[in-house]
Amino acid sequence: MNRLLLLFIGAFFLSGCGCGGNQKSDKKFFRYNQSSGLASLDPAFAKDQSTIWACNQLYNSLVQLNDNLEVQPCLAKSWNVSDDGKVYTFQLRTDVKFHNNECFENSKGRYVNAEDVVYSFNRIIDRKLASPGAWIFNNSVDSVQPFTAVNDSVFQLKLLKPFRPMLGILSMQYCSVIPHEAIEKYGANFRAHPVGTGPFVFKSWKEGTALILVKNEHYFEKDEGGNSLPYLDGIKVSFIDNKKTEFLAFKQKELDFINSIDQSYIDEVLDEDGSMKPELTNKFNLLKTSYLNTEYLGFLMQGNNQKENPFLNKKLRQAINYGFDRKEMLQYLRNGVGKPAESGFTPYGLPSYSDELKGYHYDLEKAKQLVRESGYDTKQQLTLYTNETYKEFALFISRQLELTGLRIKVEITQPSILREWMAQGKVQFFRGSWLADYPDAENYFAVFYSRNGSPPNYTRFSNKQFDDLYEKALQVNNDTVRYALYRQMEQIIINEAPVVPLYYDEVLRFSQKNVHGLTPNALNLLHLKAVKLL
């Protein structure tokens, strides 16, 4: 990176851009970067990390998740579910105001009521808006009157059939509550004029340069000691599009936090076991936690016979699962970041995760035995499709599988083309990943439900016992009972081996030493309302 670019970055942060002149030294503004840019501040379009992170500061939903991904009250102070699991009734707080904005009379934000929730949710499913979040309600909510304001402080949601994960879905940024006045005033330009109830208020956004948010002085949440949140005076978001430049800005203390680092700096920062280099521990904080993302290889479970599709042979699929060392793969290719996927498909970090389930681990002799028992002609070559990013993983696996007698050719394909081929059933052996949208294992088991098309069921897996358990689990309100059903479903996936789980991902967050209260979570949500800069 050249010196001019470094000087620009430093000048940007020193300028206090968008805050009405130079930033006073006693003001506490949290600085982070979004290398991918920012497309919108409208929560109806919160489909990517940059929008989700920004919207998480500006808006609130009925419920929210704590760091353990447990559903907690937010705009709703309590709720109950009907005995048949179809009607959710929420008691709303009556002390929450929208941000002050010109869309309101005298530019003063008004109190939130149940009609605002109805309006916000109806907007999500409005076809004219074409929100990418419409799927959260499509085919699941009542087709006649899904959303009802019983009175100003009681909101009701009606489902077509029981769906326990709905509470987790309602915590998503798509479900943020907004005022109709803002849409009526700004229309499509609401994307750049957000009005919510969140801990921070929109100040300015110069696209591609900086986003400035300031403290909501009237925010309703307090800490355990009764002190008002947030602690910060504001947030500054930059849009440096180069991850290497971002890391250098962080090292020079021009950013308070970065989420992951460029691969080229991994060896400089992390030891082989994924911990931070000893010489850096007094300079930066490393926050590492589970991330609800499972990387895997998938088999197409469709075809007339094993000659046309050798992966219809279960013993061959099991042999591949046993035939390589996941722990060595992570240490060699990821500096120990992530955990070997040896407990099935659903990742650790989910409330229902259990490491008591025994999936696949490296066992070369067992893999060789299964190859022999499969009857597969090892003179034939198998083809594994992946993209450039995961090329080294595929090569590592193929080299280790050679010891079992299997010959694996690695075919590199563009990500968009590979996804299309997976959806069309044109590839029999492919690399995939599954990132949770909400913190419930149902999100992962939907990948194997036979009535689901492709996506998400890229493997075309079909198992009646699994389907029956899946449908039963959706109707169970008791989490203990539901999790027991999930373990049975996971065991079926392990036994049938339609996929090869590789690893459960982890989030790496680096922050400056003066940052306190920045806690990680398995959905990689950015919560800043309880962060302090000391």
Report on the architecture of this protein.
The structure is a single chain. This protein has helices at residues 3-15, 49-58, 114-125, 166-169, 180-186, 243-251, 266-269, 314-322, 326-334, 364-374, 391-401, 415-424, 442-445, 464-474, 479-496; strands at 29-33, 63-65, 71-73, 76-81, 87-92, 147-151, 154-158, 200-206, 210-215, 234-238, 257-259, 284-299, 339-340, 381-386, 407-412, 429-435, 499-512, 515-516, 532-533. The two termini are 30 Å apart. 27% of the residues lie in helices and 20% in strands. Mean pLDDT is 93; it is low at 1-24. Helix 11 (391-401) links the parallel strand 14 and strand 15 (407-412). The chain has 534 residues and is of the alpha+beta class. It contains 15 helices and 19 strands. Strands 11, 12, 13, 16 and 17 form a five-stranded antiparallel sheet that branches. The chain has a four-stranded mixed sheet with strand order 1-10-9-8, with no helix packed on it.
Gap between N and C termini: 30 Å
CATH topology of the largest domain: D-Maltodextrin-Binding Protein, domain 2
Question: What composes the largest sheet?
Answer: 5 strands, antiparallel
Strand content: 15-25%
Rg calculated over all Cα atoms: 25 Å
What is the helix fraction of residues, given as a range? 25-40%
Query: How many strands?
Result: 19
Low confidence ranges: 1-24
Tell me, what is the CATH class of the largest domain?
Alpha Beta
**Which CATH architecture of the largest domain is right?**
3-Layer(aba) Sandwich
* Shape summary: globular
CATH homologous superfamily classification of the largest domain = Periplasmic binding protein-like II
> What is the domain total for the residues?
2
Number of helices: 15
Give average pLDDT, whole number. Answer: 93
Helix/strand class: alpha+beta
